[in-house]
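ok, trying the design again with the full structure, not the truncated one.
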């Protein structure tokens, strides 16, 4: 199942527009903050799909019966570009456990060719858990698939949500073919093309560089 949040009329699209805008991109703090705000909206939308339970809350005037999430998801992200996006999820699921994965493109002799390397993983047990993997860009889908495979070594999740600000059609198709069925994909927008270097077009550029400076 794929949810494209940008198809709805909401303030979400204004934040996404600002993240894409090359003039606004000169302000790193604003880019990081907008990615965080976008993460908050993703968190709110995904929260509607979780399991809920009732609980009694004592107020100064009595007792209220409230519905709250039965359990919080584990929040996973790919360093470094995913960090501000992840913070948005953490702002809403504030008591959730987090997982972090280091993945990067190792370029070969031909700069247009690269392989994705996963080098570091910090994660709680994921057995039977609901998991959200947040990364701003879903280009070829290779990085996300490798990160998913690394994470499930920590236990088989009950369900996984993949959240990306922007995705390519190719990346989504790759995940459909290479990941299990218990996956829900959430994107801000789906763009049509990839460059020879596998950057999304029109996309927004290199999300990590925009947030933290060039490598």
């Amino acid at each position: 199942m794929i949810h494209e949040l940008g198809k709805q009329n909401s303030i979400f699209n204004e934040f996404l527009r600002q993240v894409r805008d090359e003039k606004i991109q000169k302000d790193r703090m604003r880019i990081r903050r907008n990615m965080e705000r976008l993460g908050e909206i993703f968190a709110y939308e995904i929260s509607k799909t979780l399991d809920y339970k009732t609980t009694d809350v004592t107020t100064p005037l009595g007792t209220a019966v409230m519905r709250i999430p039965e359990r919080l998801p584990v929040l996973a992200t790919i360093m470094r570009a995913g960090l501000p996006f992840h913070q948005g999820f953490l702002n809403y699921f504030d008591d959730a456990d987090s997982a972090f994965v280091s993945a990067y493109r190792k370029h070969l002799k031909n700069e247009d060719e690269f392989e994705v390397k996963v080098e570091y993983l910090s994660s709680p047990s994921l057995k039977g858990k609901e998991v959200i993997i947040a990364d701003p860009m879903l280009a070829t889908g290779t990085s996300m698939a490798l990160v998913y495979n690394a994470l499930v070594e920590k236990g088989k999740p009950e369900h996984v949500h993949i959240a990306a600000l922007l995705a390519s059609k190719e990346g989504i198709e790759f995940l459909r073919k290479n990941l299990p069925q218990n996956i829900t994909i959430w994107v801000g927008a789906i763009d049509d093309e990839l460059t020879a270097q596998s950057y999304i077009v029109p996309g927004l550029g290199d999300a990590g560089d925009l947030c933290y400076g060039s490598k």
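Keeping the full-length input from now on. The domain at 2-212 is CATH 3.40.50.2020 (Rossmann fold).
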